[in-house]
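Reading a protein record of the kind used here takes little practice once its layout is understood. The fold follows as a row of integers, each naming the local backbone shape at the matching residue. With these conventions in mind, the following record can be read line by line:

_____
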Amino acid sequence: MVMIKNIFAVFIFIFILIVGGFFYLQNQMNFSHGDFSGEKDFTIEKGADAMEIGENLESEGLISNSKLFVFYLWKHNLRGKIIAGDYVISSNLTIADIAVLITTKKEDNQIKITIPEGWRNLKIAERLKSNKLPVDEFETLSKDPKYFQGKYGYDFLNDIPNGYDLEGYLFPDTYFFTKDASAEMIIKKMLDNFERKVLADMILEIKSQGKSLYEIISMASVIEGEVRSQDDRKLVSGIFWNRIKSGQPLQSCATLAYVLGENKKQYSYADTQVDSPFNTYQNPGLPPGPISNPGISAIEAAIYPVETTYNYFLSNPQTGETVFSRTLDEHNTNKVKNGL
């Protein structure tokens, strides 16, 4: 009799463990979250298996346990239905939510938005509006760098002077946003991207030159508007830094385009006389701040200029080729040759 009672007790104990374990697993798969807050980009490469994907999700802090993730896929017959591609994963998603997300066509729940290099914040706002994302909140928050600096600890925003916005720091790239993404999360994703692309060794190089990151981004935004090829950009960067060193105005047409709100093949003398602190024909040195959001190529050019004896350049309006010259007479001759 005692033996029967003991066996029954063991059976009850095992039953409780099984039932408890079942409910624990269900709870973990349906209610647990990763250890981060906000949103993260996550890429599933073609051919990646469930275990590899689960381990990557766990290492990114997107889920609590990779084995539970694989178990959920197996239990719901989803292992062979994973769709390779780029995803935006929010911190409020559970293992179950993520499993459904990556086995459902992402077009149903995500918006793909491309922000070209050299776009201003106002242009980005227009693209967000066309995709029915919160443009009013975006415009308000993009004017408040200190909010993001204080909340998220972005040290790279420290140099932005009072009264200036996030122009220059909303990194141009292709993004995937959820349809209900807030303006704050949209801006945070762009700032996170900036922080990833502008590497620590770049920051050290900037400091070693006695410059600020804000000066570099301002210069990069001007270079972005002037020339396209990386080699030409580094030469133009050398020309512009030399002009600043000698006290000569930058005389950048990109800054005129910013002031006038219009790109022209050739700016008139009257255009160069417009009264604005961003008019680098009238004001020596850098403009007061960035005139656009430059890409990494222009940023690298601003950091690593090529030493040059050239002092002038122009872009052929037909071919886009950059033509360099050393003297003003040579430059004026090149203008005639290139139809300017």
